[in-house]
Amino acid sequence: MGRIFLLCFLFFGFSAQSQPRLKGGLDKFVMEKKVYPAYSLRNCIQGLVTIEFKLNHQGEVTYSAIRSGMGTDLDDEALRLIRLSSGKWEILKSHDSTVVLLAPMKFELSGSGCDGKTKTDINLAIANYVSNASLTEVIQNFYKNREKTGFKPEDEARFARLKEQLGYDDDYFAERIKDGKRKLKQKDPQGACEDFLFVKNMGSNMADELIAQYCR
User: Fold this and answer.
1) Fewer CB within 10 Å, N- or C-terminus of the chain?
2) What are the DSSP calls for 139-180, one per residue?
3) Residue 60 and residue 82: Cα distance in Å, rounded?
């Protein structure tokens, strides 16, 4: 395995001056650009997500993946932030583009009504997110393909009940659309369209106008 450097002032014996540096600092970038994802926000999920990535000599992200995470949509947001940082890194001429860099990102909530949530509640919410991921994919496949394959009215009703059981309602979709609009303001159309298309692929037309405008 290639060498691995940990950013955020921990460098395994290498000097900070020799490392790639995000303009303004990683912590400031995360604080300014972070869009706390809907599921983790609703369920008061907080914690540390570490992303591994590589940079080319132009400071562009050429590879990124979750090194360790929470197992929820916080992991997706951390990946998005690293993707959004592409081109903003200051690189020395001696930079080795094969080196794997690690970026730890701490997600914390304050003043968000989480005082009543116990650790057991939060752990259960994380477990539910993981276990429900496959069901979410099944729902999306149904709505993506229903016009092509045809469907029975009882199928529509069954998937509507399943969405309700998983908490995918208009309030949740509105939160995802709001998140997408914030990402548009950050000049992240890819991240925004992922939110808008999620809403569409869950059988809602709430984001259709935004998809037509930004996701073609």
Assistant:
1) N
2) HHHHHHHHHHH---HHHHHHHHHHHHHHT-SHHHHHHHHHHH
3) 10
Question: Are 184 and 214 within 8 A, CB to CB?
Answer: yes
**Phi, psi dihedrals of residue 4, rounded to the nearest 5°:** -125, 130
Which residue is listed with tokens 């929820």? Answer: 72
Predicted confidence at residue 9, as pLDDT, reads: 32
DSSP 8: S
38-81 pLDDT, tens digit each: 999 999 999 999 999 999 999 999 999 999 999 999 999 999 99
Q: Which domains does the chain possess?
A: 4-107 (3.30.1150), 119-214 (no CATH)
99 touches 40 (CB < 8 A): no
Q: For residues 139 and 160, what is the distance between their CA atoms, to the nearest angstrom? A: 9
Q: From the centroid of its chain, how far is CA 168?
A: 17
Question: What is the pTM (predicted TM-score) of this model?
Answer: 0.77
Which residues partner with 101 through β-bridges?
A: 5, 53
92/62 Cα distance (integer angstroms) = 17
- Residue 18: CA count within 13 A, CB half-sphere: 12
Say yes or no to pLDDT of 4 above 50. Answer: no
- The identity of residue 71, as a single letter, is G
Give the integer Cα–Cα distance in Å for 46 and 59: 29
Is residue 102 within 8 Å of 52, Cβ to Cβ? yes
Q: How far apart are the first and last CA of the chain?
A: 39
